[in-house]
Specification:
Oligomer: single chain
Strand content: under 5%
GO molecular function, one term: DNA binding
Keywords: DNA-binding
Number of domains: 2
Distance between the termini: 15 Å
Protein name: DNA-binding transcriptional regulator, XRE-family HTH domain
Length: 107
């Protein structure tokens, strides 16, 4: 059981967010319902895309980019030229320590 918890925590930490939809919606001041209406999908679809449960079609990504008035490339997290920040290193250390405590049966 402890190994399962450890792997789950690590997987969630390592999982990289691919889309910046939540961030861009916040910046542009557009809510899920408004975006959903403008791109002609359900709010559930927007929620699933935002939480990366479902990947959108290219056509939907293009529609979202138009509504948000951004280049379609801005919908994605950059994958080139990004350095790991000190904050990310510290967060990783905390998560690793927490995972080790779980494995050892401590809280």
């Amino acid at each position: 059981m402890a190994l399962f918890i450890f792997l789950y925590v690590c997987e969630n930490f390592i999982k990289m967010a691919v889309l910046r939809l939540k961030e861009l919606m916040s910046i542009k001041g557009i809510g899920r319902e408004e975006l959903a209406n403008k791109v002609n999908v359900s709010t559930t679809t927007i929620s699933n895309i935002s939480s990366e449960k479902n990947l959108p079609t290219i056509q939907l990504l293009l529609s979202i980019a138009i509504v948000l008035d951004v280049d379609v490339r801005e919908l994605f997290v950059p994958t080139k030229g990004t350095a790991v920040t000190q904050l990310e290193i510290e967060e990783a250390k905390v998560l690793l320590e927490k995972s080790l405590r779980i494995l050892e049966g401590r809280k």
